[in-house]
Amino acid sequence: MADIFKEVDEDLRRDNAAKVWKKYGAYMVGAAVAVVLAVAGVQAWRAYDLNRRSKLSDQFAAALESVAKGDTAAAQEALRQLGDPTAGGYHSLAALEEARILAKNGDVPGAVAIWDQIAGNSSLGPGLQTAALLLSVLHQIDSGDAPSLRARLEPLTAEGQPYRAAALEMSALLALRQGDTAAARTFYSTIADDRASPPGARARATQMLAAFKG
Predict the structure, then answer these.
(1) What distances in angstroms separate CA 25 from CA 141, 169, 176, one per listed residue?
(2) Which position among 12, 41, 174, 194 has the lowest Cβ density within 10 Å, counted as fewest Cβ atoms?
């Protein structure tokens, strides 16, 4: 860990933000991925637990079992039949899982299209919407339009938002990709100063701020 941040420090001293992003972007956003998957997992479990005897829950559970067994083709077919980004309950959960598999298999545009549909549907509730938005931005973070992605994250960076730290960390990475070191420093400072931020996020932000000072 110390060696990684030592290298970050050396790159930042040369003001090579693009290189920092290329080498460390995926590593630094790892915790954000975990947060997003946790959101989706909690939503899925609650839905399953409340309705586990229903037909839809059986279909969803069967699809997840296919995923666990590595039978991607069967899982995708089951999820495709059940999934609907515009509907609630198991339909949206299935769509969320289908998008995850698409992204894993390299079809990021297809996954993003599903996530964006979920993120734009206010009837699904803030939990799923936020998970979908963060996943969409995350999978475009190294190639999408950085200003647009930062604008999408901005509402989630407000004080009191449950996934503020993840949104701020992604915003910082986007700023680094743009070469906007000052903005990145501001985002990391906000994470480090917010006692509500997860310990891991605060630690990463503090280490990045130390590297900037170097």
Answers:
(1) 9, 10, 9
(2) 41
Question: Do residues 32 and 169 make contact, with C-beta atoms less than 8 angstroms apart?
Answer: yes
Do both 52 and 132 map to the same domain?
Answer: yes
Residues 196 and 209 in one domain: yes
Residue with tokens 């039949």: 81
Q: What is the mean pLDDT of residues 42-69?
A: 62
Q: pLDDT (tens digit, 9 = 90+) per residue, 56-108?
A: 667 777 766 776 777 677 767 777 776 667 666 777 777 888 888 888 888 99
Domain region containing 117: 32-140
Based on the fold, state whether residues 124 and 40 are members of the same structural domain.
yes
Q: Cα–Cα distance between 25 and 181 in angstroms, integer? A: 14
Domain count, the chain: 2
